[in-house]
Amino acid sequence: MSAQPPNPTEISPPLLEWFDRTGRAMPWRETRDPYRIWVSEVMLQQTQVTAVIPYYERFVRRFPSVQALAASTENEVLALWEGLGYYSRARNLHSAARRIVDDHDGLFPTDHAQVLALPGVGPYTAGAVLSIAYEQPLPAIDGNAERVLCRVFGIEGDARRGEARKTLRRLATEAVPARRPGDYNQALMELGSQVCLPDAPNCGSCPLATLCVAVRSNRQHVLPTPRQRPKLQRCYVAAAVLWRRGRVLVARRPSEGVWAGLWELPWMEAGSEIECPDALVPFLRDAFGLRAEGLAPIDHFSYGVMNTRYRAAVYETRHVRGRARPAQHEAVAWRSPTELEGLIMPAPHRRVARRLAR
DNA sequence: AACGCGGGGCA
DNA sequence: TGCCCAGCGTT
Predict the structure, then answer these.
(1) Which of A109, A142, A324, A357 could form a disulfide with A332 if both were Cys (CB 3.0 to 4.6 A apart)?
(2) Last residue of a domain, one of A216, A245, A277
(3) Which long-range contacts (C-beta less than 8 Å, at least 24 apart) are formed by A54-61?
(4) A30, A41, A82, A174: the active-site residue
(5) Per residue in A266-275, pLDDT tens?
(6) Last residue of a domain, one of A190, A216, A242
(7) Which residue is closest to B4 in terms of CA–C1' distance?
(8) Is position A41 annotated as part of the catalytic site?
């Protein structure tokens, strides 16, 4: 009962027509400047459009050109990135800007291989920037576009691996039109995010419905084939708010690994639900050389990162003795809740800091 | 509170 | 190819 997949060249005309009619206005759609397109594409990685817009506007106002970005310090860039998360994106953006100035005369490269060689730029970002800014007919397959293509062409199997992956890439490449490839790529992603939704696709208003294998075989809900996902891990953490003269202890993480170089509250991981702060006391002694007493619970919340679900408990005390000396951190500091605003902190720690400032 | 998702670096 | 990185919007 398999419907015939469409010819890849049939996709772009109805899609572009739909995009011209319904495409949303976005600040980075007002420009053909490859630098701005690039900044927007990096910000849009794992972050939604509405969250990106204010960050994008602030960023290009502060750094209007690749030269301005390259001339700044990494810390300035991270400060503007604060709140967007996944800070390696900002570090890569900054280091790539320096490379563009040093090696490419300050012009965003037009050569595909040179673009792919920039830190933080992979197949998606390279295709997006080169197609949108330079009209190069390259595909830009993000998660939304992948879902649309799997449904339209009826691609079975995990599209990230094996035969399905090859098929997807071949058809995606053939489907990119020579004219308006950048608009086509944006249209495909926008269709995925606005119409071809994961759970409840709105096929009635989809410009590709008549071509779509999934629609014609009524398999919208089984395509794309779900990926195998590892089982969810659960973790427990306890964080400490240590007060001294109206300030709390924060520590700067090492420059490698998770949350590299960011400031955080003292915290530890535990194998099971933490019922009492007893485990924190020896931890604070070992990691900071501090003797804490009277830790009392003030907050708890949960957050997830990919495959792990964390349950966090926050304890505070004013009874801390000793001079803080970090064993695993690069630095420690005592900061008032207001001063914490100026530090770059990971999302869960920022949450606690904001609570202290209220 | 549970759930589901993404793109790039790197060995 | 498989792990690492380490957040948020939706339900």
Answers:
(1) A324
(2) A216
(3) A55/A80, A55/A81, A55/A83, A55/A84, A56/A27, A56/A28, A57/A27, A60/A36
(4) A41
(5) 999 877 776 6
(6) A216
(7) A306
(8) yes
